[in-house]
Amino acid sequence: MKGQYLIGISVLASALLGGVQPVIAEAPMPLNPAFNVRRLLVTHRCYGCDLTGADLSGTRLSGVDLRNANLQDADLSSANLVGADLSKANLTNANLTGAVLTNASLASATLDGVNFSQAHLYYVDVTGASMQNLNLTGAQMMGTSISVGGEAGPVEPGLPTQSIPDGPLPNFPPPPPPLFDIPIEAVPDY
Protein backbone atom coordinates (compact mmCIF):
# COMPACT_ATOMS: atom_id res chain seq x y z
CA MET A 1 0.00 0.00 0.00
CA LYS A 2 2.82 2.38 0.90
CA GLY A 3 4.47 1.71 -2.50
CA GLN A 4 1.32 2.82 -4.34
CA TYR A 5 1.41 6.17 -2.55
CA LEU A 6 5.08 6.65 -3.44
CA ILE A 7 4.40 5.92 -7.10
CA GLY A 8 1.41 8.29 -7.13
CA ILE A 9 3.39 11.03 -5.42
CA SER A 10 6.34 10.63 -7.80
CA VAL A 11 4.07 10.75 -10.89
CA LEU A 12 2.30 13.84 -9.53
CA ALA A 13 5.60 15.52 -8.65
CA SER A 14 6.99 14.78 -12.09
CA ALA A 15 3.92 16.29 -13.76
CA LEU A 16 3.91 19.39 -11.53
CA LEU A 17 7.63 20.05 -11.69
CA GLY A 18 7.78 19.78 -15.47
CA GLY A 19 10.20 16.98 -16.03
CA VAL A 20 12.13 16.97 -12.74
CA GLN A 21 12.65 13.27 -12.21
CA PRO A 22 11.79 11.73 -8.84
CA VAL A 23 14.60 9.96 -7.05
CA ILE A 24 13.04 6.51 -6.57
CA ALA A 25 13.61 3.24 -8.34
CA GLU A 26 11.57 2.47 -11.45
CA ALA A 27 8.45 0.67 -10.23
CA PRO A 28 7.10 -2.32 -12.13
CA MET A 29 4.31 -1.31 -14.50
CA PRO A 30 0.77 -2.46 -13.79
CA LEU A 31 -0.73 -4.82 -16.35
CA ASN A 32 -3.58 -2.38 -17.02
CA PRO A 33 -3.03 -0.75 -20.44
CA ALA A 34 -5.57 2.04 -19.72
CA PHE A 35 -3.63 3.09 -16.59
CA ASN A 36 -0.38 2.96 -18.55
CA VAL A 37 -1.82 5.16 -21.33
CA ARG A 38 -2.70 7.83 -18.73
CA ARG A 39 0.75 7.49 -17.15
CA LEU A 40 2.43 7.87 -20.56
CA LEU A 41 0.43 10.96 -21.48
CA VAL A 42 1.21 12.65 -18.14
CA THR A 43 4.88 11.74 -17.69
CA HIS A 44 6.03 10.86 -21.26
CA ARG A 45 7.71 7.82 -19.66
CA CYS A 46 6.43 4.28 -19.59
CA TYR A 47 9.51 2.05 -19.47
CA GLY A 48 8.59 -1.62 -19.85
CA CYS A 49 4.87 -1.01 -19.58
CA ASP A 50 2.00 -2.90 -21.18
CA LEU A 51 0.20 -0.88 -23.85
CA THR A 52 -1.20 -3.87 -25.73
CA GLY A 53 -3.96 -2.71 -28.08
CA ALA A 54 -3.80 0.88 -26.79
CA ASP A 55 -5.36 3.64 -28.90
CA LEU A 56 -2.68 6.34 -29.13
CA SER A 57 -3.76 7.56 -32.56
CA GLY A 58 -3.00 11.21 -33.25
CA THR A 59 -1.20 11.73 -29.95
CA ARG A 60 1.84 13.94 -29.46
CA LEU A 61 4.49 11.61 -28.05
CA SER A 62 7.65 13.58 -28.85
CA GLY A 63 10.62 12.35 -26.83
CA VAL A 64 8.72 9.64 -24.95
CA ASP A 65 10.55 6.79 -23.21
CA LEU A 66 8.89 3.53 -24.28
CA ARG A 67 11.93 1.27 -23.99
CA ASN A 68 10.96 -2.39 -23.51
CA ALA A 69 7.25 -1.49 -23.72
CA ASN A 70 4.67 -3.89 -25.14
CA LEU A 71 2.80 -2.03 -27.90
CA GLN A 72 1.53 -5.15 -29.64
CA ASP A 73 -1.59 -4.34 -31.75
CA ALA A 74 -1.45 -0.69 -30.60
CA ASP A 75 -2.86 2.09 -32.78
CA LEU A 76 -0.23 4.82 -33.22
CA SER A 77 -1.63 6.12 -36.50
CA SER A 78 -0.80 9.79 -37.11
CA ALA A 79 1.13 9.93 -33.82
CA ASN A 80 4.07 12.32 -33.43
CA LEU A 81 6.98 10.17 -32.23
CA VAL A 82 9.81 12.63 -32.93
CA GLY A 83 12.81 11.69 -30.78
CA ALA A 84 10.92 8.80 -29.14
CA ASP A 85 12.89 5.91 -27.64
CA LEU A 86 11.21 2.60 -28.47
CA SER A 87 14.36 0.49 -28.09
CA LYS A 88 13.56 -3.19 -27.46
CA ALA A 89 9.82 -2.45 -27.61
CA ASN A 90 7.39 -5.02 -29.01
CA LEU A 91 5.34 -3.37 -31.77
CA THR A 92 4.11 -6.58 -33.41
CA ASN A 93 1.13 -5.78 -35.68
CA ALA A 94 1.01 -2.15 -34.50
CA ASN A 95 -0.56 0.49 -36.74
CA LEU A 96 1.77 3.44 -37.43
CA THR A 97 -0.03 4.68 -40.54
CA GLY A 98 0.93 8.31 -41.11
CA ALA A 99 3.05 8.46 -37.94
CA VAL A 100 6.03 10.81 -37.81
CA LEU A 101 9.23 9.22 -36.53
CA THR A 102 12.20 11.58 -36.83
CA ASN A 103 15.38 10.80 -34.88
CA ALA A 104 13.51 8.01 -33.10
CA SER A 105 15.06 4.77 -31.85
CA LEU A 106 13.58 1.39 -32.69
CA ALA A 107 16.87 -0.40 -32.01
CA SER A 108 16.38 -4.10 -31.23
CA ALA A 109 12.60 -3.63 -31.36
CA THR A 110 10.17 -6.24 -32.68
CA LEU A 111 8.49 -4.64 -35.70
CA ASP A 112 6.95 -7.75 -37.28
CA GLY A 113 3.73 -6.97 -39.14
CA VAL A 114 3.88 -3.21 -38.44
CA ASN A 115 1.89 -0.97 -40.78
CA PHE A 116 4.17 1.99 -41.65
CA SER A 117 2.06 3.07 -44.66
CA GLN A 118 2.26 6.84 -45.29
CA ALA A 119 4.63 7.14 -42.27
CA HIS A 120 7.57 9.56 -42.19
CA LEU A 121 10.69 7.66 -41.12
CA TYR A 122 13.57 10.14 -41.01
CA TYR A 123 16.85 9.02 -39.41
CA VAL A 124 15.24 6.23 -37.39
CA ASP A 125 17.64 3.77 -35.70
CA VAL A 126 16.43 0.25 -36.50
CA THR A 127 19.71 -1.52 -35.70
CA GLY A 128 19.02 -5.12 -34.68
CA ALA A 129 15.25 -4.77 -35.09
CA SER A 130 13.14 -7.71 -36.25
CA MET A 131 11.29 -6.55 -39.37
CA GLN A 132 9.16 -9.25 -41.01
CA ASN A 133 6.09 -8.43 -43.14
CA LEU A 134 6.27 -4.63 -42.89
CA ASN A 135 3.81 -2.47 -44.81
CA LEU A 136 5.79 0.49 -46.17
CA THR A 137 3.27 1.61 -48.82
CA GLY A 138 3.74 5.33 -49.41
CA ALA A 139 6.16 5.69 -46.49
CA GLN A 140 8.80 8.41 -46.77
CA MET A 141 12.25 7.41 -45.56
CA MET A 142 15.55 9.19 -45.24
CA GLY A 143 18.57 7.95 -43.29
CA THR A 144 16.68 4.85 -42.13
CA SER A 145 18.21 1.45 -42.95
CA ILE A 146 15.22 -0.74 -43.69
CA SER A 147 16.15 -3.44 -46.15
CA VAL A 148 13.87 -5.62 -48.22
CA GLY A 149 13.97 -9.31 -47.38
CA GLY A 150 16.01 -9.20 -44.18
CA GLU A 151 17.18 -7.30 -41.17
CA ALA A 152 18.89 -3.95 -41.43
CA GLY A 153 22.58 -3.84 -40.79
CA PRO A 154 25.67 -1.81 -41.53
CA VAL A 155 26.56 -1.29 -45.17
CA GLU A 156 29.66 -3.20 -46.23
CA PRO A 157 32.48 -1.10 -47.71
CA GLY A 158 32.48 -1.09 -51.50
CA LEU A 159 28.76 -1.75 -51.91
CA PRO A 160 26.74 0.87 -53.79
CA THR A 161 24.61 3.13 -51.61
CA GLN A 162 21.80 5.49 -52.43
CA SER A 163 22.72 9.13 -52.07
CA ILE A 164 20.39 12.02 -51.43
CA PRO A 165 19.48 13.60 -54.77
CA ASP A 166 20.46 17.17 -55.57
CA GLY A 167 17.78 19.80 -55.18
CA PRO A 168 15.34 20.67 -52.44
CA LEU A 169 14.75 18.33 -49.54
CA PRO A 170 11.48 16.41 -49.46
CA ASN A 171 8.48 18.11 -47.93
CA PHE A 172 8.44 17.28 -44.25
CA PRO A 173 5.03 17.14 -42.59
CA PRO A 174 3.90 20.28 -40.80
CA PRO A 175 4.65 20.43 -37.08
CA PRO A 176 1.89 19.28 -34.75
CA PRO A 177 -0.39 21.93 -33.26
CA PRO A 178 0.68 23.45 -29.94
CA LEU A 179 -0.54 21.85 -26.74
CA PHE A 180 -2.12 25.12 -25.60
CA ASP A 181 -3.64 27.77 -27.85
CA ILE A 182 -3.36 30.91 -25.71
CA PRO A 183 -3.53 34.21 -27.58
CA ILE A 184 -0.52 36.40 -26.83
CA GLU A 185 -2.76 39.29 -25.78
CA ALA A 186 -4.31 37.03 -23.08
CA VAL A 187 -0.93 36.57 -21.35
CA PRO A 188 -0.47 39.29 -18.68
CA ASP A 189 2.67 41.43 -18.60
CA TYR A 190 4.72 41.13 -15.42
TrEMBL record:
<protein>
    <submittedName>
        <fullName>Pentapeptide repeat-containing protein</fullName>
    </submittedName>
</protein>
<dbReference type="InterPro" id="IPR001646">
    <property type="entry name" value="5peptide_repeat"/>
</dbReference>
<dbReference type="InterPro" id="IPR051082">
    <property type="entry name" value="Pentapeptide-BTB/POZ_domain"/>
</dbReference>
<dbReference type="Pfam" id="PF00805">
    <property type="entry name" value="Pentapeptide"/>
</dbReference>
